[in-house]
UniProtKB/TrEMBL annotation:
Keywords from the named record: DNA-binding
Pfam family, one: HTH_34
InterPro entries: ArsR-like_HTH, WH-like_DNA-bd_sf, WH_DNA-bd_dom, WH_DNA-bd_sf
An annotated Gene Ontology molecular function: DNA binding
Winged helix DNA-binding domain: residues covered: 68-148
Taxonomic lineage of the native organism: Bacteria, Bacillati, Actinomycetota, Actinomycetes, Micromonosporales
SUPFAM superfamilies, A to Z: Winged helix' DNA-binding domain
Organism of this sequence: Actinoplanes octamycinicus
Region forming the signal peptide: none
Keyword DNA-binding in annotation: yes
Ranges of Basic and acidic residues composition bias in the record: 1-17
Composition bias type Low complexity, residue spans: 36-48
UniProt name for this protein: DNA-binding transcriptional ArsR family regulator
Residue ranges, annotated region (Disordered): 1-60
Amino acid sequence: MSDTTKPPKSDPAKPPESDPTEPPTSNLTRSPTSKTAETPTSDTTEPPTGGPTGELPELDPVIHAQARLRVVSALSQLREADSIAFPRLQEILRVTAGNLSVHLRKLEDAGYVEVVKTHRGRTPATLVRLTRRGRLAFDDYVIALRALLNHPEES
């Protein structure tokens, strides 16, 4: 007999574990006609301050990575409809083009940023902006972080 063990089978009654790089579910839905348009599903948005049991709020893992937090923070300083050129964002953040591209892709996959490739005259230009969904996610992230920082210690 061999001592090989089989991997455990997944329990169909148990929901699959979530991917920490996926954005948390929110009260936003995407419009079927637009990749970046979002529509709130309710008029009330509850801040992520834990629940009635007092548990600590969760921080959005997509935003929480240091480089992505810096990107979203920088983009949040722009007006809602404004965008910034990729090289300027790279200069502000002092990151390599490859590193910035990887993090922008994660944020874009989550619907938090929009990356538009265009031309200025004959010169290619890449413009980046924070979407409404990204702005709301960042606002929720800041609220959750403040709640964590102000959470009374249990004795």
